[in-house]
Amino acid sequence: MPLIEELPPSVEATLRQERNGHGDEPPALAVKADIGKDGNLGERWVVVDAEMVRVLTPNGTRAHVDVEVPLSDIAFARTENLVGGGALAVGKGTDAVELVRFTTPLQGRMGSVARTIEALAKDEEPPVVSLDDDKRVCKKCGRPLREKDDVCRACIDKRAVLGRLFAYAAPHKAKAVALVLLMFAGTAMTLAPGVIIKNLTDNVLLAENRTLSARHLLLGLLVLAFIGTQLAGVVLTVVRGRLSAWLSQTITYKLRTEVHQQLQRLGLSYYDKRQTGALMARVTQDVQELNHFLVDGLQILVVNGLTILGIVIVLLANNARLTLLVLLPVPLVIWATRRTWRFLWRRMHRMWHLRSSLSARLNASLSGARVVRAFAQEDREIDRFNKRATDLYEANLQVEQWWATIFPGLNFLMTAGMFIVWYVGGRQVIGDVITLGTLQMFLFFLGQLYGPLQGMTRIADWLSRALTSAERVFEVLDTEPDVKDEPGAVAMARIEGAIEFKNVSFGYDKSRRVLENFDLKVEPGEMIGLVGHSGAGKTTIINLLSRFYDPTEGVILVDGVEMRKIKVNDLRSQLGIVLQEPFLFPGTISENIAYAKPGAAPEEIMRAAKAANAHDFIMRFPDGYDTEVGERGTRLSGGERQRLSIARAILHDPRILILDEATASVDTETEKQIQEAIARLIQGRTTFAIAHRLSTLRNADRLIVMEKGGVVELGTHDELMANPEGKFRRLVEMQTEINKLRAL
Amino acid sequence: MENNFATSAAAEAPPEPVTPVALSDARYDLILLDPSKVRLFRTGGTTVRMALDDPQVGEERSYLKVSVARAFPLSDPEHYIGLRDGADKDIGMLRSLEGLDAESRAIAEEELKRRYFLPRITRVREVTEEFGMTTWDVETDKGDRTFIVHNLKESVNELTPTRVLITDMEGNRYEFPDIRKLDEKSFGILQRVL
């Protein structure tokens, strides 16, 4: 059984004693609640075995039994939503007994507990649920996550992610190898001048034992070599830069398209659990972050690393003692740089925060200018703005001044190595331990060392950010679409439209069912109206029908075939949906109507528009069917959008049609036009319609009144109206009353 | 109703795509008029009148005021011309102006020309940019013109890679029917700005 947590010894012991030999089988359910008897945070346990529900509070080595209810007494179990938490109660007859209270995070789990207890009491098969909760913490280390299913920055297997990232370079192996070689060669070119300087000093400038002409010759050669290495360095950098740009952009492009492709394939349930913004960030920001890292980060990492390594090796080979002395301040510089960044970061964050809060205020007061004037609050707005501006001024000033103070200090630290070289190296030159050339070389390399070192202090952060992004991207790529063709899915070229719901139950998350044992049989061409309060389960039926989700239990049959066994594409292509808020893509009107049938002939498009009562208003636009709609284009009214979406559905010619509040939020005249359009649209199609305005469902063959995930009334309009006690009749009467009021 | 429709269209049309919806009411049927049954005329003034004898609409109808409009003025200007009554309601569509008698056709063409004022840019003399506004000095088939475009990126509509519409600050539109056919200097300026 999944709903079992490990009992603490005290509870375990007491429980054994309580049960007193009555069955020693493990409990059927054992979960911890997190509010104690006294109403403070504390631990309490709900344990259910075959006979009894017990609530225990651990108390030292023993536990106190707070509540005991025999399963046979229990009529129902439910959770109650309270503020900041909830309560679990079981019912005996008409009365209820509270078992435990708990905080909000446990709400979902306790819902499952309630259903399990109820099932056990009724001797039914308990629902399949599990403890795995949806807390926003990392499963491995328990650190909090920014959003659910986010990637934990501490736990990612950096090597695996990096490896996978590099795998994208595999098809371009030759280029990647060339890139690495170029980096090596480039590093060698930046190190060469040091060696040349040494030779120049020792063998030319100070080599008084050689002939003048030999020295001149060598001087010329060395300067030429100098020029040569520098030129080669430039060429290598250019080639390397171009190659690396090509590689990184190619990989980024591939990642970006792959992620988007995957997002298009994933079922809607994937989108439910995540915000569109967060998903967009994965396609744009995360990929961008990776791109940055691949273009710059990786190069800096490798080139800097190689440079530092090269310098240290060359120096060590020349004079180990001096080298070690020179490197003495390095840890200090690294430490100071990191501290500085952290210090400045915090202040910069504050500055950014203030800046955005300033513009938010500005936005509010300017866009609300009318209200500000109306209530004569100009002075207050001025004050508020001034206050924020002052804060920003101070924060800015602080950052700038710290910046101006810290960096000279850091620079001084970095030159500390220089003093050592001059003093210690100078003594060694005087003592003839090293040549002047070696000293010159040390000075040169020292100057080259600190830039890369500083860069490397920030690379760790950079790397970790990039890898987190990579992991997020890979997470999307690795997600299996939850609605997909099963092996052996059958093609269904033409659906007749017979639909049957058989004992269908469904919940968007496992702990809460929004549809319970729903049964319905629909004939081809029948129109079914769905009525009920929001949350009654109407939209869920439509989501299941569109196979955006699969039912948790039960089956849906289409023409006698289980929906799951029909190819998703065949099903969806014969399904049309007209939504309350029709979505128009940026593009022309004719493109939007033909969205589901690209390449439709102009006449087909116009015919559909005419049937949808849209032709006339479209022709009134200066650009007719070529009118641009969407963000950049002409603004269409709700009714116009609605009719375009009906035209789209007509052209799509679906066998099953879904109308979701298609006439909400339009005026009466427009509603009439839409009604006419719909009346023509539904002919010969199995139609499911949701409407708040009950009058619009008059044409429905049957109406279903839903409440709390179940059917409470079913029948034709007239049948339902004939029942004086009926819910539907009451709803209609209420609406009529309201309409009368409106008419007054 | 549908039969009538079929006979009138069969004369010139390629095979009809199957109408997916069972239509019961002529008001919601797309009416493609038989051009031989349409006669446009004027009675001294500029108002266009029409006599129509198409069974889809009714027998021997006459309209005191008629206007013409293109369904696809940008993507397919030569086809699907709508005839609209005095209340700006659809009377019916013509597949094209072909098949109209000479006088009607002349009137229709005149009216279309009147309705769609879209200067075609034939030469770009100069484009200067300042503060995000571009000033265009151009020659068009309707005369020389200087106009200012604000926010160029959002004012340019590339219908095809070679056919470009540009909307100025005041909402006037100008067309480059084919930028490749511009002279070299104009093309160069365009390449630079767009």
TrEMBL record, chain A:
CDD domains: ABC_6TM_exporter_like. Pfam families: ABC_membrane, ABC_tran. Residues 499-733 form the ABC transporter domain. The chain crosses the membrane at residues 176-197, 217-239, 298-316, 322-341, 402-423, 429-450. It is a multi-pass membrane protein. It is found in: Cell membrane. One of its GO terms (molecular function) is ATP binding. The keyword Nucleus does not apply. InterPro entries: AAA+_ATPase, ABC1_TM_dom, ABC1_TM_sf, ABC_transporter-like_ATP-bd, ABC_transporter-like_CS, P-loop_NTPase, Type_1_exporter. The keyword Phosphoprotein does not apply. Residues 177-458 form the ABC transmembrane type-1 domain. GO terms for cellular component: plasma membrane. Its main location: membrane. Signal peptide: none annotated. Keywords: ATP-binding, Membrane, Nucleotide-binding, Transmembrane, Transmembrane helix, Transport. It comes from the Bacteria. This is Efflux ABC transporter, permease/ATP-binding protein. It comes from uncultured Armatimonadetes bacterium.
From TrEMBL, chain B:
Pfam families: DUF1854. Residues 64-193 form the DUF1854 domain. InterPro entries: DUF1854. This is DUF1854 domain-containing protein.
